[in-house]
Automatic annotation (TrEMBL):
InterPro entries: FAD/NAD-bd_sf, FAD/NAD-linked_Rdtase_dimer_sf, Reductase_C. This is Reductase C-terminal. It comes from Paracidovorax wautersii. Gene3D superfamilies: 3.30.390.30, FAD/NAD(P)-binding domain (3.50.50.60). Pfam families: Reductase_C. Residues 44-127 form the Reductase C-terminal domain.
Length: 127
């Protein structure tokens, strides 16, 4: 895994995950074969720990507030970090579908308002 420039991190990033290692290798292979490949994936990490599925998408920041969706007590929740109306990162425990829709929002530079994110009656995949 290389320490590389990453626009999502706002600088250099060393992302030690299997997905990043795989995608970097694909990009390097294409470049060696003569293709012009820019590698700038959204950082993504996941781990299964006993009965917990933990996923992090984007680059979390201690300086940003989080919007909670779900309940830590119930063992299924996501925390969305937003800055200037754009989604910056998501931490999810046992709610992988939130990561899937969040990836789309990160790529589009959009995000629903915090009150919509927090409302579990709203289906995020329909927004």
């Amino acid at each position: 895994m290389a320490n590389q420039p990453n626009t999502w991190a706002g600088g250099r990033l060393r992302c030690e995950s299997w997905a990043n290692a795989q995608n970097q290798a694909i990009a390097v292979g294409k470049a060696i074969a003569g293709g012009e490949v820019a590698y700038d994936e959204i950082p993504w990490f996941w781990s299964d720990q006993y009965d917990l599925n933990l996923q992090v998408l984007g680059v979390p920041s201690n300086e940003l507030e989080g919007t909670l969706r779900g309940s830590a007590e119930e063992g299924a929740f996501s925390v969305f970090q937003i800055s200037e109306g754009r989604l910056r990162s998501v931490l999810s425990v046992n709610v992988p579908r939130d990561i899937k829709v969040a990836k789309r929002w990160l790529k589009q530079g959009t995000c629903p308002p915090p009150e919509v994110l927090a409302d579990r009656t709203v289906r995020l995949d329909k927004l």
